[in-house]
């Protein structure tokens, strides 16, 4: 890959509005220009200009359904690139101070592939560490403790799943908005599935954001010591 190609792609991603649009699409969903404009906190005209540049740069693809056009990442390789870049360096002021409710919601609680991320994802992980449900196990990994395994079994999670016997059953994933680790791997995926099944959380139908229900706040407080009043999506 030539220097020109690298610099062109880097320039496209570096612009704050375009980076928000790309991250919003990083779970593989397809969204309209208006939805991406809302996520980035810009006008439809501004969004259209940025989307055209991302299409020309090969980072997005577009499909038409009737009169509507829907944008998605050009492939999984773009999503992997975004997550890698996002984990390097500090979180930009564009995400810390954005007036966009959609962007704030993504930072507060979202799906990161198949597990929970954002402020709530980090808080759940810290709660599990504090309560001895998991421990740090080498570089970039956690491990379930005996207490943690008993706790999961009491909650009805199948501990006969062979995935829990793998060394990487609880991987550390660097949260790109919080700059701290949240739990990923099979454990993170099973927890996310359970939170949804129990009615603690609901996924947005259009973005990666996750809503915490009243039942969920009660459960998060009981099991992880997370208090609703201490959490803010800002």
UniProtKB/TrEMBL annotation:
CDD domains: HTH_ARSR. Residues 1-93 form the HTH arsR-type domain. One of its GO terms (biological process) is response to lead ion. GO terms for molecular function: cadmium ion sensor activity; DNA binding; DNA-binding transcription factor activity; lead ion binding. It comes from the Bacteria. This is HTH arsR-type domain-containing protein. Pfam families: HTH_20.
């Amino acid at each position: 890959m030539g220097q020109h190609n690298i610099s062109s792609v880097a320039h496209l991603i570096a612009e704050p509005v375009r980076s928000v649009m790309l991250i919003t699409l990083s779970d593989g969903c397809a969204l309209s220009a208006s939805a991406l404009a809302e996520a980035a906190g810009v006008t439809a005209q501004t969004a259209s200009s940025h989307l055209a540049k991302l299409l020309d740069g090969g980072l997005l693809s577009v499909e038409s359904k009737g009169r509507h056009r829907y944008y998605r990442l050009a492939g999984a390789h773009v999503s992997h690139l975004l997550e890698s870049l996002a984990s390097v360096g500090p979180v930009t002021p564009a995400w810390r101070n954005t007036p966009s409710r959609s962007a704030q919601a993504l930072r507060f609680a979202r799906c990161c592939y198949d597990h929970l991320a954002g402020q709530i994802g980090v808080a759940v992980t810290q709660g599990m560490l504090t309560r001895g449900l998991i421990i740090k196990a080498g570089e970039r990994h956690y491990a379930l403790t005996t207490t943690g395994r008993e706790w999961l079994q009491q909650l009805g999670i199948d501990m006969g799943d062979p995935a829990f016997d793998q060394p990487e059953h609880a991987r550390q994933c660097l949260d790109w908005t919080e700059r701290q680790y949240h739990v990923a791997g099979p454990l993170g995926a099973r927890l996310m599935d359970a939170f949804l099944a129990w009615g603690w959380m609901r996924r947005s139908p259009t973005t990666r954001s996750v809503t915490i229900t009243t039942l969920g706040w009660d459960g998060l407080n009981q099991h992880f010591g997370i208090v609703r009043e201490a959490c803010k999506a800002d």
